[in-house]
Each structure stands twice: as C-alpha cells, then as structure tokens.
Amino acid sequence: MSCKTLGGSPPPSVRVSSGFTITAGMKEMFGMSLIARPWQKVCLFVMLVYGISAPFEYLAIQSGSMGGGGGLYALGGMWSPAVAAMIMKLLFRKETAPFGWRWGAWRYQIWSVLVPFLYTLLAYGLVWSLGLGDLLPEKIIPRATRFLQGAIVPGLLLALGEEIGWQGYMVPEVAAHYGFTAAGLTRGIVWSVWHYPMIIAGIYGNETPVWYNLVCFTLLLTSTSIIYAWLRLKSGSLWTGAIMHASHNGLIQVLFTPITLATGVTAYFIDEFGAATALAGSVAAYLFWRKRADLPTMGAGAVGKLAVRGR
Fold this sequence. Notes:
With 311 residues, this protein is mainly α. The protein is 65% helix and 4% strand. It starts with 12 loop residues before the first strand and ends with a helix. Residues 1-20 and 30-35 have low confidence and may be disordered.
C-alpha cells in the first residue's frame, strides 16, 4: 500500500512488545494488503510452516532418522507451526482470534485422551480378532505403565508446538470464515502433506509401499482433524489438540503397536500407516461431524466470538 493511497501519510505500523515495528510495507512484502482475504492469510501461514520446517526436515532426512541430531531436528520441525502462528499474529494482530490458551472445561480435555484411546482400541481390536496380528498379553501392563509414565508429558511438549499452529491459529481462522467442516479438512490436508517429504524419504512410515503409507496416513490425519477442530471450537482451548495429539502418538507408538505381534500382513493395518487405524479414525470423525450443530455459529462476527471463547 503506497503513501498516496493513504493520502500522503506514512504507512501505518504495528509495534510489538519487543520494540520491533511491523509496517504496512513489510506486509506487502508477503503480497498481502492490510485487510487480507482469509484464504490469503491461511496460504501465507501454510507457506511459513513449510518454509520454516524445511531445513529441519532436510537435516532429518540427511541423517536417515527422525531422531537425528539428538532429536533436535524433530523438535525444530514440530515447533515450526508455532513460530509461523506467532508471525501471523504479529502481522494481523487485530484480525486474528486468540490462540485459545485457556484450559477450558475438563470434560473436553478428558475426551481428548478418551477419543484416541477408543479409535485406536477399535482398530487394533479388529486386527487381533480377525487374525491380522496377534495380541501379546504379557506386554500389556509394562507397555501401559510406560505410556502413562513416560509418553504423555514429553509428547505434550512436542505436540504443543504443532498445535499452537494448527489448533491455535489455523482452525479458528478457517472456521470463522468458511465453517467447521472446512476447518477440519484444511487442517487435515495441510498436516498430512507437511509429513510427505519424510514419508517419501523413508524415515517416517512402515514397511508397506510408500503410496500405501501416504494414502492411509492422509485418511487418518484428515479424518481425525474433524475431531480436533470440533474439540477446539467447542472448548475454546488449543490444549485439547495438544493432549489429543500426544495421546494419539503415545497410544499407537508406545502402547498398541508394541503389544501387537506382526503375522505377515499386520503392517498394512496398524500404526498411522494402516487401513484399520484409518478406518477407525474415520468412523470416530463421522460421529463428531454429525454433532456439528452443537458448535458455535460461524460466519459474520465469528472471529469476535472465538476471541471471547479463546481467552
């Protein structure tokens, strides 16, 4: 935006707490107007996430492991959505709903643990009952103990970096202008594609073909993102996303997969890259989607409503 547009006055600016000033000219560097269209802001956020995380993904791929660099590559990648969300908040302070730092009602936090437990139990229960994999009963208690003692808190610290971006910024932003379903699907697609380089490179996935990994993984993340979005909009809290994310990862990686003995085709049905998990997640997502009428009304003024709920 030029000075002429503003009647010859200097470009407006936004001063942030650190003393750094963001001017209208700086916003135009991103091809954005002062009042950007919602889809433009979402696209900018996605570009920031992918761009900030790219070096960490590259380093992880070069190391040949998600745990490369002592886990710092994964940590940097998982906190990239949070950094991108903070940048968006600085650029569009007045037009962005609060991230949702308040805890919210306890029942939603409990559901954030219970729901992934139920759909992973359904998935693995089908695998065991249909003979697609064998349950190892002797490992249940040790693995359950490990999950309860060592998976939730570390997982929460990692997941929080992603969820500040997905649940804190993107879901409310999309929902305010395009509705709940669009918010869930957008989150799921962006989240899935973000993982693709690592899946294609072979450092994240299982022994099934890459195309199969991509299909099942995308279906699981896109479907369960409907649940994430529902919990965020209903509770007003991004913590539902962080807790559900950490629970989902821990239940699959620390509990259910280790107590399952592979019998030949098992990999095609379990983990985040298997058909049973994707199917179970889709069923759970459909049940939440049917309850979309229980959510706050989106549309004109929705950012303001989300601001009140997200304080």
